[in-house]
Structure formats: structure tokens, C-alpha cells
């Protein structure tokens, strides 16, 4: 099992109920897109899946473990197996790109190695390799505050690629990128998840990207699952209902709404969810 949620609800500290009674089962190695209007609860759901927010109702299992029943050591090990690309990457502005990428393994390395890597990058070639896949290899020693928003998003992605998590979560990972780069980046995330046999969940504003690249698409509305379908079965009427409050369905490139998405035919990979 990649993860499962049963009756999960979450109320933020200000009293806002962001998730209501969410039931979800995602098998190991599945690739799932979350779509929905702004404020629907996608980030909150991803943070629950990252064991960063604790639900106040329901049951949760991540990679076979209930994080909130686990010992602190088990929770730490579980979190080291989960990688979340944040919508606004929390990278210290003066940090070098290489250090930001290598930070992906801080949860897996012993303390001495983590501290040493913060002072002196221990695996610059490993960081450069992941950055190069995102066409950013030449910015290895740049300061992060000298990058554009889209470049910073790619650094955050390179960090999680370097981490090599078993559960790969991405919160609007291409929101600051142009359509061509968004396409390439979302394709890369899917290739990586398929190749390594890990579970991928990404929230995306551009519905066409979600339908083109992900076999399964979940529509989130007002903290609930409105639909949960193979991409090829998502219909225009469902998308219009999902985005009713916004007035139109957000698309990155194609102006055509799907009557059929395109679930990728993936060869079964070796799975990494035990
Ligand atoms: N830390 C918080 N404290 C209080 N309310 C919050 C907090 N985080 C999110 N919310 C509220 O919870 C609701 C869901 O927010 P969330 O960020 O999960 O939505 P989203 O679907 O990711 O939106 P977007 O697409 O705009 O990123 C929103 O109404 C938001 O204002």
C-alpha cells in the first residue's frame, strides 16, 4: 500500500475545516494528480500525506505505518522516506543551490554528515546530476535568492529527486514555470516515479497537464473528494463542477477540454513501498 486515508478530517488552528471525511487508497507505485480550485484543500491533503499535519479525525496509513501511532524514531524514519516539494520552497535565500539540493538527504544521513554537508557540500556531482535533469546544472554554486521563481521550484524538485523518496509528493511544482517547461518537468516527475516504482501525488492547477501525464486524477472540492477516476474517464461536466467557483477550468496549454485523457501505459516497475 502506498497510503490510505479513512474518514480523515482536519481543522486548521483558526477553526477552518479544510478536509472533511476523506477516504482514499493509493497503491504502491500509482501516479495521481490532485486538481481543484484554489482553497479546495489540496495543500492540506499533501501535508497530511507528508506526516506534517495531524488529522483530527479518521485513520491514516503511510507506506504501511500510521505516523501518529508511531514512536518518534519510526516517525523520523518514515518522514525520511517521504519527499514533499512545497508550493513555495522553504529554502534559505542566501543558501547555495548545491547545499539546498543536498539537503534532500539530511533525514537519511547521520548527524555528522548532515552538519558537514551544510558547511561543505559532500556530493556536488550528485546535486549537479539532478539539477542537470531540470536544465539547471550550471547554477550549482549560485545563491538561491538570485534565482527566478521557476528556477527555485526546479531547485526544490532537484532536492526531492536527490532525496529519492518512496512517497513523492509535489504541491503545484510547476506553478511558476512556462507551459513548455511545465510539460517537461511534469513528464520528468512521472518518468522518475515509474522508473523507481514509487508513489507520486502532485497537485496541479493546469488540468490538461494532469490529464495528459497521470493515470489517475482526483478532484478535490471544499475539503472533499468530488471525483476519483482514471484520467480517461474524467468528463468536462465534472471539471466544470469542480471549478464552478472560479468560472472556468484552468489549462496550461491546450484549449480543448478532454473527453478522454491519456493514461500512460506503464510497464510494472519494482515497487518500493514495503
Ligand atoms: N495554516 C492554515 N491556517 C488556517 N487556514 C488554513 C491554513 N492553511 C490553509 N488554510 C485554509 O484551508 C483551506 C484549504 O487550503 P489549501 O492550501 O489546502 O488549499 P489548496 O487547494 O492547496 O489551495 P491553492 O490551490 O490555492 O494552493 C483554505 O481555505 C485555506 O485558507
Automatic annotation (TrEMBL):
GO terms for molecular function: ATP binding; ATP hydrolysis activity. Residues 3-247 form the ABC transporter domain. This is ATP-binding cassette domain-containing protein. It comes from the Bacteria. The keyword Glycoprotein does not apply. Keywords: ATP-binding, Cell membrane, Membrane, Nucleotide-binding, Translocase, Transport. It comes from Zoogloea dura. InterPro entries: AAA+_ATPase, ABC_transporter-like_ATP-bd, ABC_transporter-like_CS, MetN_ABC_transporter-like, P-loop_NTPase. It holds the Pfam family ABC_tran.
